[in-house]
Amino acid sequence: MSASRKGNLLSCAPPRWKRDRDKADIVNHLTAFWDTLKHSFRNLLPIILVVGLFQALVIRQVPDGLGSMLVGLGIVVLGVAIFLQGLELGIFPVGKNLSNAFARRGSLPLLMGFGFSLGFAAVIAEPALIAVAEQAEAISEGRINGFVLRLLVAFSVGLVVALGVLRTLLGHALHWYMIIGYLLVVTVTFFAPEEIVGLAYDSGGVTTNIVTVPLIAALGIGLAASIRGRNPLAHGFGLVALAVMVPMIAVQLYGILVYDLMPVDPQTLADSRALREAEDALPSARTPLGYALGMLGDLALMLRDVLPIIAVILFFQYGVIRKAIPYARRVALGFAMVILGLYAFVVGLKLGLFPVGRSMAEQLIGLDTLLYVYLFAFCIGFATTMAEPALIAIGNQAEEAASGKLNGNHIRLLVAAGVAIGITIGVHRIITGDSIHYYIMGGYALVIFLTALAPRYIVPLAFDLGGVTTSEVTVPLVTALGIGLASQIDGRSVLIDGFGLIAFASIFPIVTVLLYAIVMERSTRNQGAS
To answer: Among 240, 328, 425, 468, which is least packed by CB within 10 angstroms?
Structure first.
């Protein structure tokens, strides 16, 4: 090789300092991923222990498909780690940068338009909402239209996020929004038909998943941090809480319209029932090629779920702000990791835990005592919440925003205890056949009372934490438990009694966090007085 050619090749190579920096970045990312991987495994240990102990000590038999369950758990661990790393690389930085850019422009219409678009896009293709809507349409024999339900919920969330942006800009305290809002929720519940109440509260709960929660939270926190005089803890949190509340009102109004004001011809219901029974009777067999195609289809659906969020971000970044995304390659890698991690996460849960959860609901209800049903509900609520990725993410954000006032691990324990209590009470309602109206109205009456007493800084976070408990881990497990119990107990309606557990999983974490803040504040006052 000639000296001139060798010199040209050397001149094209990156300088040594840049190569060293790139190597250091790779090492740092790998180290962070390894730490996240270990962290996600520790978070799933409670689920493994609960399922294993109940199978060994109560059911006393090896579950069918143990091998696929173990493989599924491994995929879950890997998926959570990839997802959380993708959040740090892609979603969080972009959400905060957009919020800061809009805040500097000082354009209220832009900020509210961005909030609406982000809320609508994140929810319209939400997998948990799609699953609940499909189940509701099937169980109601077509009276509830699944796509209309999804549009209604997504539009509600879009409006709510826009309203939350306005609240942050104006610096309003969240507690008045929540008190007035939930008074309206309880009032509408009093008039709503019993077929829609549980579904309405569940629809509000499933609007928040492990993609939407961090993104919406990043929007609120980034906006509050960029405005002088705003506190990230008091004004940054609260968007998730509003996103959970308003769809409850909208879906109940939809139920009043469908069940009370638009009677359906009995022959139409009979035809719908016959068609669904014929579809269920069709044989199903899948070859290895069929499974491979099914996995590719699931990955495409997962891409579809995240694509609206990516489209909104790209539109506002390049069409409105007209600036390139900083560190675009890193952000693109982050979004790809979010999609891949979310896909692996959902696939792993389907393989590992969902079949066991459904079968255990049937097995436990067949035992001589119902005590084990209550115990399982409490344990599975606590374990799934401790493993919830969205709760891990928002707990870390809360600890950072609170500047030492809050501990992320303490928050997770409080929320997990609240979910466990709520699901246990919800299971008791299914077993006894009590009306969900009184449970829901009583629960939110308690929430309103505690909101009036609690210190103002904790209210937005407490309500947000009530929303993050209902994500990809909790929703399918809890929904399967509720529908399984309702279908196994004589005299229970799957539509009326099967739904609603997610609502209880959302209410009681708010109660536990508010109670904790009230007790701690009074304890601090007493110590100061003495």
So the answer is: 328
